[in-house]
Design a protein that fits this description.
The protein is of the alpha+beta class. It contains five helices and five strands.
Length: about 200
């Protein structure tokens, strides 16, 4: 019997389903000028967390990528366990055993890959400044923003680093065009800002 379609493999099939859903959400969000990747990263505190999340390199490697790696490693490990069990004993492992084993096996794998990602693909965001200090800086729009529909933008922090924000038009503005420069006039919450078109093209952030 195919171990991939057994009831014992449902948790691992579900993990692949969630992985595909994440890819779909990220693709759709990019069409609207946003990014689930940066939205998730924006939920993290300004400093990378300590404890288990720090051990998993959350805040140092992109959170969405770490989650995708975890789902992939969990699914592949689970399928491998059931395949080995079927070949050895003629039956898959019970889910009460295979799920925790697959999860515990996946965590060190994701941590190792996360460490490589943190070195090879360093995030452009920096935690050297707080978000509220960005008010008054000029950001560059990466998407098209309308009232209540923010789009992603990037802004320099003054230390040679780039931060990614979600920006929407201020009350006095109808829209912010993609590839335009805007002035951040107000912090709405976290990494979400209101902006107006840059009134001075020569104004630097």
């Amino acid at each position: 019997m195919n171990p991939f379609v057994l009831p014992a493999s449902l948790p691992f099939l579900a993990a692949l389903g969630v992985l595909l859903l994440l890819g779909l959400v990220e693709g759709l969000s990019l069409l609207f000028g946003a990014s689930a990747w940066h939205w998730l990263d924006g939920m993290i505190e300004h400093e990378p967390p300590d404890g288990f999340l720090g051990w998993m390199h959350v805040g140092r490697a992109p959170l969405l990528v770490l989650l995708a790696l975890l789902l992939t490693a969990f699914a592949l490990t689970g399928f491998a366990l059931n395949f080995i069990a079927m070949a050895s004993f003629g039956a898959p492992l019970p889910r009460l055993l295979s799920v925790p084993v697959a999860l515990l096996t996946s965590l060190p794998m994701v941590r190792a890959l996360g460490a490589r990602l943190a070195r090879w693909m360093p995030r452009e965001e920096t935690y050297a400044v707080t978000f509220d200090s960005l008010v008054g800086r000029v950001a560059h729009m990466l998407g098209h923003a309308r009232p209540a529909y923010p789009a992603q933008a990037k802004v320099a922090d003054g230390n040679g680093h780039t931060l990614y924000l979600m920006v929407e038009p201020d009350e006095t503005v109808d829209e912010l065009a993609i590839d335009s420069d805007v002035l951040l006039v107000r912090q709405i919450s976290g990494s979400r800002f209101a902006a107006i078109p840059n009134p001075r093209p020569d104004l630097l952030g």
